[in-house]
Structures are given as C-alpha cells and as structure tokens.
C-alpha cells in the first residue's frame, strides 16, 4: 500500500494542473457539487428518521408526484451552485425552466444540468438513489445570464459528467474526458476518497437491465433481442442475467462495474422512452464511453444528439460495447436469427 490518500479535491487539482489555462473555477464547481452530495447523502441516509419521507403536494414538470427528498435535493444543489461565480445558469429535472443565478451573485462560464435525486420513487423502500450532473461551457456571451441555449448542446461537448450514488456507501463517479474515477465517501471525516481509479467496463457483460413488463409495448426488434439473450446457449454465454432495480444510477453503476447492458426502449406508451437526454442519458453516456462502453438511442450515438428541449426524453441503450453492438444489429434487423424467424 502506498499510503497515499487521494481525496476528490486533490484529484481534481492535480488533473487541473495539466491545463495551464485553468482558472480554478472548475475545481470550485466540483467542490460545490461534492458539498451538495454530502448534504444529500446525509439526509437520504436518515430519511426514515427525520420524517422527510412521503409525498409533497407538488407535481413536477414531468407530471410526477414530487417526493420531499427530491425537493430537498433540488434546493441543495441550487444553493450549492448558485453563488460562487462559476455558473451562469442551472437546469434541474425538478424545474421547468432554466434556473437563473440571483442578481447579487457573479456569473461564470459554466452551466450545470442535473437530476437532483434520480430513482426517488424507490426511496421509501430504501433502494439506492442518485444525483446525476452534466457540466458544459456556456455558449452565449459572457457577462449576461445564461439561457436555454447554453444547455442545448450535444453531449460530446460536456466538460464533465458524473453521478453520486447513495447506496450501501456513497460514491461519486466522474469524468472530464480523461478516464472515469470513483470516490467513496468516508463518513467519519466527510471526504470523498479515490477508491476506483480509471474504471473500465468489461467489453462484454452478463447482465441485462430492462423493465420487461413493457415487452408488449416494444418494437418487434427489441423483443427479438430480449428473447435472443434469454435463450439457453452456453457457448455464447446465454442466457444473460436479468437485473433491474428501477433506479437508473444503481442499475448503471452495477453494470458499469460488472458489465452488461441497460435498456430503456421506446414503447407505444412512451414513444421517446422515459429518460431525459440532458441530465440522465448524456452524463451516463459520457461516463460509459470513457470507460470503454457505448450508448445509443437505437440509431445514433447519444453524445451526438443535438437537444431541442431542456427536458427532452430519449430511448437509451447503454453498457458494454459488444452488448450494445449486438443490440444494434437486432435493431437494424440484421441478426441471423431474425432472418431465420421470417
Ligand atoms: P425519475 O427521474 O422520476 O426518478 O425517473 C427515472 C427512473 C430511473 O431511475 C429508472 O431507470 C426509471 O425511472 C425506471 O422507470 P420504470 O419504472 O418505467 O422502469
Ligand atoms: Mg430522473
């Protein structure tokens, strides 16, 4: 053991030193996200104790009932990020419009889009939930508040993407395009400590994660793929193993470490799927690609999609490269087993 403890702050500072033009603003911004994550983590962990569970009367922009902890996580992120002069606007799953920086605070060169507490419908059952974030450079002129235009950039332009998973331990995983790094929160001294350096996802995995109750609402080709990976054929490693928590960060995190594929296909009920491009699909796509995996919407690379709306939904197929490739072969109708079925 080297005895070297690398905290998140140290890691970011050392990474930023590689860029002589770095101003320190990005380091500040990441520290603010980490601070928010610690507060959210603390509150998620004691949720049942503090009577913070249960539903508020509000309906969010997606038409879903907002849990109290969603609201808390949203407010925590906004309060942590709005005053340090690194951002010119924020966007949250819980807020229909772009969140402006209050007049009394300086404006910065970044925008941050986030899902403050993803998977929150599972919280009452103690299932792991997460915060997902994506950071971009603004594209509108400096000195003025940011606008929605700053957020409607394709995912490959992300400066940084990450998530925090509030699980059996709290972990922050992020990339700036130089590999994927995971930090585990040490609750005794409140620091994120590097525990997973340079995460790589297996080229091929064993796990598939999808809400199979929608089977009857999917396109035939998606059904054919799912039927195929469930067939018994030891030589090709089938059947694959089904794992679905219904909490994106948890499903994604497990598959990132173990290998496999997560699917949220379009259906006749939800023609664009359910997940949101800006603060769910894009950040996870950036991370998976940096870990050697792939993410597509069925036809396109997720990171190439130019968003049209802040809360745009997108079908998502994400995971190990070979598993995503196989799925794509099915979506194109080009797998030999599909011809045999005709
Ligand atoms: P949320 O952002 O309202 O929490 O919804 C997103 C969640 C994801 O975490 C998860 O992957 C998905 O919804 C599960 O959806 P479904 O219940 O349709 O399988
Ligand atoms: Mg969400």
- The value of Rg in angstroms is 20 Å
- What about the largest sheet? 8 strands, mixed
The level 1 CATH classification of the largest domain is: Alpha Beta
Q: What is the CATH topology assignment of the largest domain?
A: Fructose-1,6-Bisphosphatase, Chain A, domain 1
The bound ligands are: 2,5-anhydro-1,6-di-O-phosphono-D-mannitol, magnesium ion
How many domains? The number is 2
The CATH homologous superfamily of the largest domain? Fructose-1,6-Bisphosphatase, subunit A, domain 1
Give the low-pLDDT segments. none
> First CA to last CA: what distance?
59 Å
In terms of DSSP E residues, the strand content is 15-25%
In DSSP terms, counting alpha (H) and pi (I) runs of 4 or more, how many helices? 8
Shape: globular
Question: What helical percentage do the residues reach?
Answer: 25-40%
- Estimate the mean pLDDT confidence: 93
The assigned structural class equals: alpha+beta
Give the beta-strand count: 15
SSE order: HHEEHEEEEEEEEEHEHEHEEHH
**From the coordinates shown, what is the CATH architecture of the largest domain?**
2-Layer Sandwich
> Order of strands across the biggest sheet?
4-3-5-6-7-8-9-10
Please describe what this structure looks like.
The chain has 342 residues and is of the alpha+beta class. The protein folds into 2 domains: 189 residues, Fructose-1,6-Bisphosphatase, subunit A, domain 1 (Fructose-1,6-Bisphosphatase, Chain A, domain 1, 2-Layer Sandwich), CATH 3.30.540; 125 residues, D-Maltodextrin-Binding Protein, domain 2, CATH 3.40.190.80. The chain is 28% helix and 23% strand. It is built from 8 helices and 15 strands. Strands 4-3-5-6-7-8-9-10 form an 8-stranded mixed β-sheet, sandwiched between helices. Strands 12-11-13-15-14 form a 5-stranded mixed β-sheet, sandwiched between helices. A two-stranded antiparallel ribbon has the order 1-2. Strand 3 and strand 4 form a beta hairpin. It is globular, with a radius of gyration of 20 Å. The protein starts with 7 loop residues before the first helix and ends with a helix. The mean pLDDT is 93. It binds 2,5-anhydro-1,6-di-O-phosphono-D-mannitol (AHM) and magnesium ion. The site of magnesium ion has 4 residues, from strand 5.
């Amino acid at each position: 053991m080297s005895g070297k403890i690398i905290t998140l702050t140290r890691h970011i500072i050392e990474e930023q030193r590689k860029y002589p033009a770095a101003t320190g603003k990005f380091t500040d911004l990441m520290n603010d996200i980490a601070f928010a994550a610690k507060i959210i983590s603390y509150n998620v962990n004691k949720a049942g104790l503090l009577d913070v569970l249960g539903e508020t009367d509000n309906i969010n922009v997606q038409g879903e009932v907002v849990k109290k902890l969603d609201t808390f996580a949203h407010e925590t992120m906004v309060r942590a990020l709005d005053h340090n002069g690194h951002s010119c606007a924020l966007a949250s799953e819980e807020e229909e419009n772009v969140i402006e920086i209050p007049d009394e605070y300086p404006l910065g060169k970044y925008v941050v889009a986030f899902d403050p507490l993803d998977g929150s419908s599972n919280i009452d059952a103690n299932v792991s939930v997460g915060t997902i974030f994506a950071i971009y450079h603004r594209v509108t002129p400096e000195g003025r508040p940011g606008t929605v235009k700053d957020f409607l950039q394709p995912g490959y332009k992300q400066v940084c993407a990450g998530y925090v998973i509030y699980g059996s331990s709290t972990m922050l995983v992020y990339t700036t395009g130089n590999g994927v790094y995971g930090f585990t929160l040490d609750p005794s001294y409140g620091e994120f400590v590097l525990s997973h350096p340079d995460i790589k996802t297996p080229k091929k995995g064993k796990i598939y994660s999808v809400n199979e109750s929608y089977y009857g609402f999917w396109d035939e080709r998606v059904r054919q793929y799912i039927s195929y990976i469930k067939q018994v054929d030891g030589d090709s490693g089938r059947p694959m193993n089904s794992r679905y928590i219904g909490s994106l960060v948890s499903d994604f995190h497990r598959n990132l470490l173990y290998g496999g594929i997560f699917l949220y296909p379009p259906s006749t009920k939800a023609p664009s799927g359910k997940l949101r491009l800006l603060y769910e699909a894009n950040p996870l796509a950036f991370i998976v690609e940096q870990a050697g995996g792939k993410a597509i919407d069925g036809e396109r690379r997720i990171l190439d999609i130019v968003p049209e709306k802040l809360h745009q939904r997108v079908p998502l197929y994400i995971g190990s490269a070979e598993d995503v490739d196989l799925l794509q072969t099915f979506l194109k109708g080009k797998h030999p087993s599909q011809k045999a079925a005709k």
